[in-house]
Amino acid sequence: MADFDAQIRKSQEEVAKAQARISAVTARVEAARAKALAGEPEIDIENATLDDVRQHADLMNANIAELIMGLDDVTAGFSRDFDEMRSKTGWESFVGVFSRGKSESMRQERLRTASIDDKLQDLIAKSDVIVRLLQGQLDLLNDQKTRVEANLGDTLVERETTVAALESVRAEIAGMDPKIIELENRISVEQDAAARTRLETELAELNTRHNALVQDEQVKLAKSQTLERYIEKGKTWVDSLQNQAATQMVLINKLQTDTRQRVVLYDALTKSLKTAQQQDVAHRINEIGVKTDQEAQAAMAAIGTATNQRMAEMMEAHEDQMVFARKVLEQKAKADERFARRFAAIVEKHDKNLYGRE
Predict the structure, then answer these.
(1) What long-range pairs does 99-105 form, CB within 8 A, spacing at least 24?
(2) What is the mean pLDDT of residues 173-191?
(3) What is the pLDDT of residue 139?
(4) How far is residue 81's CA from residue 83's CA, in Å, rounded to a whole number?
(5) 357 DSSP assignment
(6) In the predicted model, what is the mean pLDDT of residues 12-38?
(7) Alpha-carbon distance 61 to 238, whole Å?
(8) Which ranges of the sequence are coiled-coil (predicted)?
(9) Helices H, strands E: what count in the chain?
């Protein structure tokens, strides 16, 4: 499991880097809005930056997906471990030729010191570590998305206001054109110098106002365009955050379902092993038979009673256990299907051992 520890540490580092990049992009989105509202013409959010963050997130999730599949491989090995524990080793069988008691003692000692429980608990603990890692990333993504959406909403309102003001300015400019043309025509035919002077003064004032409105139109147009660019970048970032969050939820669902399935598997395998031990004891007592003393017979009766009681309890609990186990397996199948669909390329490399190939 040392490789898992190293991979988990690597994933933790990658998540930290991803979170730093995501926070940086969100900060740039917020700074861009401030620039847009200040009327600055340029915006410093580039598609390349968003793509870089997305690619890093994909790499991080691919690494975690391979970790999850590695956990699945280790879980599958538990069944083989239990099979080996259920039967005697070659050495134990050899010793049994000379001393059955010694052989059984060796087997019991091996079972007593077996580390299946520790291995499973370690596996579940590692699953929980990865879940917490993914949940932390999901929380950050949702927080960043909320911040960007709030800023985006404010900017959409700001752009609506800016566009409305722009249209108002354009309407005023359009309304001035006939007046300017009229004054120019009147000036061209006016013979009285004083009257011409008044008309020219009025025309100059109109032109001054017209020029101011044209300049205002240009400022508002530039602001509207900047806000529009910011809005598009903001929408792209929100979409990216949503997609990343969806991936995190798929991974979390897979891991949580796998953990429940591992608990069921361990419970089933443990009971299977205990049953095998009980059967071995029962066979040995049966071979002793009626030639044993009363104490052995009493032990047999006690074991028989306990076995019957245990059997009854197992039969009564069997239905609930089967319903729960079936439910967990159904959940796992759904989680595996979602996981395989989203990480098809990784699953194929894992299943076909295609690592290092394009």
Answers:
(1) 104/280, 104/284
(2) 85
(3) 93
(4) 5
(5) -
(6) 81
(7) 19
(8) 1-35, 189-216
(9) 8, 0
Least Cα distance to 65 among 348, 329, 321 occurs for: 348
Return the CA Rg of the chain.
Answer: 38
Beta-carbon count within 10 A of 87 CB: 10
Residue 293 dihedral angles phi and psi, to the nearest 5°: -80, 180
Question: Exposed, middle or buried: residue 317 (CB in 10 Å: 0-12, 13-18, 19+)?
Answer: exposed
Residue 102, H or E segment: helix 100-112
Q: Which residues contact 70 (CB under 8 A, 6 or more apart)?
A: 3, 4, 7
Cβ atoms of 93 and 103 within 8 Å: the answer is: yes
Q: Flag whether pLDDT at 315 surpasses 60.
A: no
Most confident of 200-214, 302-316, 330-344: 200-214
* The pair of three-digit structure tokens given for residue 189, joined into one six-digit string: 């035919």
- Residue 87 is predicted with a pLDDT of 64
Residue pointed to by tokens 């071979």: 287
Answer yes or no: is pLDDT of 97 > 80: no
Type of residue found at 235 = K
> Residue with structure tokens 């759904």?
334
Q: For position 109, what pLDDT does the model report?
A: 67
Residue type, 243: N
- DSSP character at residue 291: G
288 has pLDDT over 50 = no
